[in-house]
Amino acid sequence: MTRRLRCRFCETPLTHTFVNLGRTPLANSYLRSEAEMARERSYPLHARVCSNCFLVQVEDVVPAEEIFSDYAYFSSYSSSWVAHARRYAEKMTAELGLGSASLVAEIASNDGYLLRHFVDKGIPVLGIEPAANVAKVAEEAGVRTDVAFFGINTAKRLAASGPRADLIAANNVMAHVPDINDFIGGVPILLAPEGVFTIEFPHLLNLIEKVQFDTIYHEHYSYLSLLTTEKILAAHGLRVFDVEELPTHGGSLRIYAAHKAATRHAESERLLALRAKEAAAGLHTLAAYEGFTPKVEHVRARLLAFLQEARAEGKTVAGYGAAAKGNTLLNYCGVVGDLISFVVDRNPEKQNTYLPGSHIPVFAPEKIYREKPDYVLILPWNLADEIILDMADINAWGGKFAIPIPELQILS
Length: 412
Prior knowledge:
The chain is an alpha/beta fold. Helix content is 33%, strand content 22%. The strands form three sheets. Strands 6-5-4-7-8-11-10 form a seven-stranded mixed sheet.
């Protein structure tokens, strides 16, 4: 693709680096053979910040269709994420009075992990999911799913063929769209006049303060704050009226928005408080985004020192979680199979593959118990509590957990 060096929202030239992570393969492009390894390509992973709207973003190096049309991520393999979705369904059903005459739509509905909770309540749903292999799983679970990328044209087609939605959810997808104006531009078309639109995404402020650079990869085109998100929504006729700070994905925001002309939903105290928090952190100034690279380099140095010391002592390290964030971390740090023997993952789609870039093999979790490594490096650190609980039996041979972000931790 042509390198894009203008802001994907406001078209301002991008001249300020946030962090440059070098060249890496696509984070979810798992490999199945030596032939695929030989053909593997790497692309620049350079995050810049817009000096006008302060949107942090990476270049469009690969079309979204190449990444998301056949996708290896299935939300239902994380039990904590499914529980998070169930709580959301219960909360929104109660607060909005949703019932059999309502419609709940989800953009990037994946395998139906969220909408199935509304289906169980007898509430009509519509999933919108571009990956046909994932949408098929949702349909088999009883979640009506339209296979398409969401944008203005998709929204017009869906609004013309059925009712507009009382609730639209968009969890961890706004960052995944290269044309952010087309994506958000479709929301008011599909949203009912008094409907509610909720978005969840990892909070940029946490990325900066907790050095979560491994959440940067090519399919995450944008990195969002409340400040910038409000600007983008306002440009498309939507106003934010509430926000929640969530623990998911290392610290996320759930933003609530409605049409500007909607008569309900006054601004909440939580919204005013978070605006003030971001202002105090200086997210409206370039200074807040400077100085990130040395923090990233420190994480790399600590992880490599740990892995090299373990190797020198004859100890073995395995990874848990073939996560995209783990691939960014391993590739930026230059970690390969001589430092981490193998990685395990619950998702059968990723088992018996090789990680992109590092080419470390991926197996089912049972491999841990057969090989008994001295350390298990938790790559999706946002799921550390869940993983430690699931794998607590490594204590039987004195195994320990290691968590790399934001500071290396070794845990029994």
